């Protein structure tokens, strides 16, 4: 895609006037991402009944913006992979422990195992960083977004206050690649801070 195309959103953090504007920007970023590929993964909105069935399985509601995302956009294969509403091996929205059963091994004998288990049991995986076992999760009660890193300590780090913030950053990562700036982290570091970028990407 030509970086000078009028359809390509500018490489800048937007300020949203309302949720409709936010979703429109997400859609534009997804379109820019998809136009890089000869056979892009489809935008596939999900039927509300399938989301209702997922919430029944989880025993909790999805965060409102995550539900709106899947109802209106639903694209999963982006700069990072989002988990699907419908059951899919290794890549569906599900409790963190179901998504990564190896947590049993990680916490075996840990001095803070009780408190860690209390948190793990509240987390729902909704994003798969790069299919490397690291997962994005939302807290079923607070809606906070936690990053699960199976290979580092701490295992769980709270990074965003809600799913919308994570999706904004994911769309910006798509936009970086569409602009040919996939290796340029400066704008991410300015927006998120060095600590978050280091925890997330390294």
TrEMBL record:
Record-linked Gene3D superfamilies: SMI1/KNR4-like
Top-level taxonomic group: Bacteria
UniProt xrefs under Pfam families: SMI1_KNR4
Organism field: Kosakonia pseudosacchari
Taxonomy of the source species: Bacteria, Pseudomonadati, Pseudomonadota, Gammaproteobacteria, Enterobacterales
Domain Knr4/Smi1-like: 45-169
The protein's name in its UniProt record: SMI1/KNR4 family protein
């Amino acid at each position: 895609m030509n970086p000078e195309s009028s359809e390509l959103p500018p490489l800048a953090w937007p300020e949203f006037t309302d949720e409709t504007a936010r979703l429109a920007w997400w859609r534009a970023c997804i379109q820019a991402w998809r136009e890089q590929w000869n056979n892009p993964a489809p935008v596939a909105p999900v039927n509300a009944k399938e989301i209702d069935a997922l919430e029944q399985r989880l025993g909790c509601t999805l965060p409102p913006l995550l539900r709106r995302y899947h109802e209106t956009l639903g694209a999963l294969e982006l700069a990072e992979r989002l988990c699907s509403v419908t059951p899919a091996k290794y890549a569906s929205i599900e409790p963190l422990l179901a998504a990564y059963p190896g947590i049993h091994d990680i916490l075996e004998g840990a001095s803070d195992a009780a408190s860690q288990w209390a948190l793990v049991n509240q987390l729902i995986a909704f994003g798969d960083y790069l299919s490397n076992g690291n997962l994005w999760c939302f807290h079923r009660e607070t809606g906070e977004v936690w990053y699960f890193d199976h290979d580092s300590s701490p295992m769980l780090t709270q990074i965003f206050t809600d799913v919308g913030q994570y999706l904004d950053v994911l769309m910006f990562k798509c936009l970086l690649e569409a602009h040919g700036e996939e290796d340029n982290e400066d704008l991410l570091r300015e927006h998120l801070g060095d600590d978050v970028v280091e925890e997330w990407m390294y």
